[in-house]
Description:
By secondary structure, this protein is α+β, with helices and mostly antiparallel strands.
Amino acid sequence: MTEGGSIPAPAAKNLLALDPSEEAEFKKKVQEVKKRPKKDEDVTPGVIYLGHIPKGFFEPQIRKYFEQFGKVLRLRLSRSKKTGGSKGYAFVEFECDEVARIVADTMNNYLLGERLIKCSFLPAEKVKPGLFKGSETQFKKPTRPAVRRYNKNRTPVETERMTSKLLQKEAKLRKRLAEKGIDYDFPGFVRPKSFDS
Length: 197
């Protein structure tokens, strides 16, 4: 031992076989390993399509479930812009395309939550650049869903404004049909009775 208390590490170039008679073969194998491409360069990401996803199976659950196969890079669950509910399909990107192929084969027609999941591997040429757009941001439920906006109680002024817009659209439609020489009569929008009577 030296005064510093540590043993100097041997240089990386001086690799020796344990058995001196196998030294030449060992050096050949070391050279082959050095010539092989590194795993980081060789790995290409793979994307799978998941269909028929059961209700209640959202981003955190999908990520947790599929990380048992390998590292999940990105995940996008398609949702309705109006209600924020799941549309029932998703795309998952794995670190390695071989893992994605194995997942696609394993999970296709897998029974999960009373539904048969459809899973398929997407080749690189089918993966569009905007496929994972917005996948990094956490989902926030819409503040004013369209259904609630549509069904809300309106004041008489709002009802009158909506009625006049509908009548204007109907008049434009009738005018366009007449310009094209189409003689078509349809019932159209009926103005509701006023709130006074």
